[in-house]
Amino acid sequence: MQARHISLLLLCIALLTSACARPLLESDADRQQRVLAEAEAEAAAGEYASAARRVEELLGELPRDEQIDAALQAAEYWLQAERMRQALDLTRRLDELPLSQEQLARRYLIYTEILTRQGRHAQAADYVPEPLDALPPALQQRGLKLRAEIRIMQGDVIPGLRDLQQRETLLTTAKAREQNLHTTWHLLGSTPADLALISAPRGTEPGIVGWLELGAIAQQRWRDPRRFREQLRSWRDSYPQHPASGRLVEDILAEHRRQTDYPQRIAVLLPLSGRFAGPAHAVRDGLMAAHYARHDEAQTTEVLVYDTGDFAEDILDSYNLAIEQGADFVIGPLSREALAILAEQRRPAVPTLALNRLDPDEHRIRRRELFQFSLNPEDEARQVAERAALDGHARAVALVQRGDWGERVIAAFAERFEELGGELLAYTTFLPDSQDFSGGIRRLFEIDRSQQRQRALARTLGENPAFEPRRRQDAEMVFIASFPAQARQIRPQLRFHHAGELPVYATSHVFTGHVDRRQDRDMDGIIFPDMPWTLHPDEFPVAGELSELWGSRFDSRSRLFAMGYDAYRLVPLLRDGGSGFRGYFPGATGHLYLDENGELRRLLRWAQFHRGAPDTEQLIAPSPALEVDPEQP
Question: pTM for the complete prediction?
Fold first, then answer.
């Protein structure tokens, strides 16, 4: 009996203990709120990807209304983490769910932001939720900022500035208003519109007129840095009450000082003798032109040029000699073989800008101090694939010059085109000295098969009916990887073989770099990317000076002159581990940005041959690489 009482007592104690503990257990709702709070804290600390994953893992447990809001929040976290694919996938999960007006506006803003980050401003404009005034203040702020960017980047600058002014009235902290001023400044510095040509209508607010004048100064800042500082101070004297005339001007001046502060001694390592002497001399002369264009400012910087010769293994001797002689920054080497040898060292002794690029699968750049800059044809091919996808083409055929160069170009095009949902149906190669491309074109478009079918039909019927060969009908575009001599023949032969109506895309290699309407008249219609130096040389007065000085040598290697010119101008942005690089640099070789691997990437302008010359009226503003293609929500 006593044992029974003891058992009952223990049972009561256990029940009481359980009853007391139960209220201390976390309910599902409390846990969900805790997870959301933890995600918010992670996002506040800049851990956006972790915050997005935390919220996304919780979605299946939440009620529908809360699930929609949480999915939108996770998508916004993914956007802040620069993971647009994940953001898009989350918003697509909401297709079948009923969304409130506010939730629908948030979804539209996510699409808008994805498209603006890709530089697809015309498409982004279709997603801006209107009217913005009907949205809560936080969403209004986002919408006004995005709409302003879309308008300014499309050249509709004054309405875009008004959007940013309206946005400022919604901001509640001094820090947020200051950031709004910086946003306005950077947008004006990035717009493809020529702000000096925009005339504000009578009665335009003085603040807007001031921004237009400040933006026009910004667009000229890389041409003459010294004059830029003088212009900026003069502008502040003219607009003392303008919201940008205070701290923003000081920030701009400080940033510009960092971006134009050259080291005392720059070493240039180039193979000025041997196989690569021609390209090396062009790079050197472009680099020195940039140096002397600094006028008296250049006197504080000494440029030491070293001939690294024809043997890649000599690069270390030249590099070490430059360091011994006091180099603070090195530009070079030029060849890939020499760069591979230099990259094997533990770390560069000083910041170094190599004028080539290594395959990351074969070589690993261990240190941030070694930057890579090249006129890589594979990068151009990828941008052609992106342009074709943006233009709505999903099936391509290609004609490619035989050899290593052509193989690299077509592989890069095909890989990127397929990533974007396209398909390379077929390609054919030709020899570099080819003039007759009819056989390859006939095979590419399966015209021979059409003729074989006609001959079989004629044998069956015993007669030869009227016949016109038919090409394959599934191709939507043609990509050609060739140089001018071949491209001048390919375009008319495509027309002859019933493919003349297909859009033709190419890399910059189809254009010599100087206008020759007589020679290039048969290339009309070809769409290609190229550098500003080549398509708009009037933006770079030094290009005209070099052309007069060097004549045909400049014409045949003008892009290498531009490479040297940009290499010198990049030095102050890279000398401190790349910390001076902010966004995009408007280079002669393209809109340049620094990726996470220390590689400088180029975004090119676009042109189309018209009457034997690149049509500069059709230039397309450079934009970040295409990542995703949002469907209609």
Answer: 0.72
